[in-house]
Amino acid sequence: MNFRLYKLLATLALCGSTLLAACNGGERGPTRSMAGTWRLFEHGSSVRIVPENPTSADDLRTIITGGGNVTFRWEKNGLPVAGEEGPSLSRKFFVRGDTVAVRSTINGAARTALVVIGNSPPRVESVVFSPPYICRGTDITAKPAAFDVDGDEIRFSYRWRINGREVSDNSETLRGDRFKAGDKVGLTVVPTDGRDEGKPYITQQVTIPDGLPVFVSTPPPDFRGHTYVYSARAVDPDGGALKYSLVAAPPGMTINESTGEVLWPVTEKGALTQVVEVEAVTATGLRARQKFTINATVP
After folding, report:
1. How far, in Å, CA of 248 to CA of 253, rounded?
2. What dihedral angle (degrees, nearest 10) is formed by the CA atoms of 70, 109, 43, 78?
3. Helix (H, G, I), strand (E, B) or coil at 15
4. Quick one: which H or E segment has residue 9?
């Protein structure tokens, strides 16, 4: 047999079988995998569900090719979804792992498409730094707030940045000795539900302010004698010098503005009670105060 004639007969046979399958409601074959399937039929008509790889956070809708008179019926795991006969299906009707199908008729011919609902990764909605006032020497702790549609437990990974460069700290806490006043600190938080990672959440940069001074000495509350002595001491987290002064004090009490040494030569006799308040000021004007009561017994 002539080769060209044989090839022509084979092609006609293939076309005949395809036409027979179409007349019997058969398909030309799926063009996608199970996730995001659509079917092509005779005359090019089709039904398709989008998004093609949905999660429980997505609403579903159909795309029809070769339209005309169209009807819809939604099914979940092989059972009809009551009352849902429109071109879309709300995410409230399914969860992760469900198989959702839409059965349509286009000009009287049956069409079907189906998808499998995949995992929805968690998302970070906000990140708060604690404590509210951050300065050198104060550890910064990140407290992310996140949500997972599927109700999965959420874990986080952390990437801290100081002046735009990542540092080795990879926990929720950045040590206070890693930065100083004027540095810019930022953080990237990535959530995961054990299946998928969510989108990275990048915080705004925080400029580290000058630190507030803090008193580290404790005044003696009681003394017996004629001269009260107290070495007041505060520290500046940024290492600057401090200037001391008395805000409230009994007559005759003095303080060394450089060293913080308090002296009070008591001239009255008997039992005395005095309220004292000492202040320490940084070079940039930040202040700390220490208020205490002295119970004196003068013989």
Report:
1. 10
2. 80
3. helix
4. helix 3-23
Q: Which two tokens stand for residue 132?
A: 């509210």
Q: Which residue has the tokens 């940084």?
A: 282
3-state secondary structure 17-77: HHHHHHHCCCCCCCCCCCCCCEEECHHHCEEEEECCCCECCCCEEEEEECCCCEEEEEEEC
Going from the C-alpha of 97 to that of each of 53, 118, 119, the distances in angstroms are: 12, 6, 8
**In whole angstroms, how far apart are CA 77 and each of 36, 38, 99, 253?**
16, 17, 5, 85
> Which are the contacts of 89, defined by CB distance < 8 A and separation ≥ 6?
59, 60, 61, 74, 81, 100, 102
Do residues 228 and 294 lie in contact, with contact meaning Cβ atoms separated by under 8 Å?
Answer: yes
CA distance 182 to 259: 27
Q: How far, in Å, are 35, 99, 153, 298 from residue 195 at the CA level?
A: 17, 19, 11, 74
Give tens-digit pLDDT for 43-86: 568 899 999 999 999 999 999 987 678 999 999 999 999 999 99
| pLDDT tens figures, 117-167 | 999 999 999 999 999 888 888 899 999 999 999 999 999 999 999 999 999
Taking the C-alpha atoms of residue 134 and residue 180, their distance in angstroms, rounded to an integer, is 10
Are 281 and 242 spatial neighbours (Cβ–Cβ below 8 Å)? yes
